[in-house]
């Protein structure tokens, strides 16, 4: 009896582990959505850049991209926290991919021509959760700030 109960518990735990995985494109889109929502203004330039980033990174057709953008917005607006998305990215991507994601976040922050303190705060918090070093956080900010200023 105990053995069968133990086996059942293990089976349920394995099913939960297998189903808890979040698609990396969705996890990425949700975090990018968090950045563009940070200043409580959705600027068309930010949305356009986010679409472009996701389309290029994940090689998506327009229909799949529309679906991803909608789902990301819903997740970003409805989730209590975003740790499951952060955890998936942290656990399933390499360090350089996470640094590249932080750089994408900075590009979004500068897309509307101004860096908002709320956007910077959100990017800083996400970079820390993604275990991106402070030096890479600063370096990616400088790269994108220079790009935005045309330097």
TrEMBL record:
Tell me which Gene3D superfamilies the record gives.
TerB-like
Q: Identify one Pfam family in the record.
A: TerB
Task: Pinpoint the Co-chaperone DjlA N-terminal domain residues.
Answer: 26-141
Q: What is this protein called?
A: TerB family tellurite resistance protein
Q: Which lineage do the record's taxonomy fields give for this organism?
A: Bacteria, Pseudomonadati, Pseudomonadota, Gammaproteobacteria, Oceanospirillales
């Amino acid at each position: 009896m105990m053995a069968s109960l133990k086996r059942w518990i293990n089976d349920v735990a394995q099913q939960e582990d297998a189903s808890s995985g979040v698609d990396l494109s969705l996890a990425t889109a949700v975090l990018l959505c968090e950045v563009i929502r940070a200043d409580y203004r959705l600027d068309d330039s930010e949305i356009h850049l986010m679409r472009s980033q996701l389309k290029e990174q994940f090689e998506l057709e327009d229909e799949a991209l529309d679906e991803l953008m909608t789902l990301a917005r819903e997740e970003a607006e409805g989730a209590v926290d975003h740790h499951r998305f952060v955890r998936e990215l942290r656990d399933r991507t390499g360090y350089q991919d996470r640094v590249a994601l932080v750089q994408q976040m900075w590009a979004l922050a500068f897309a509307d021509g101004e860096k908002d303190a709320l956007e910077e705060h959100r990017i800083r918090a996400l970079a820390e959760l993604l275990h991106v070093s402070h030096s890479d956080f600063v370096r990616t900010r400088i790269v994108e700030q220079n790009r935005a200023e045309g330097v």
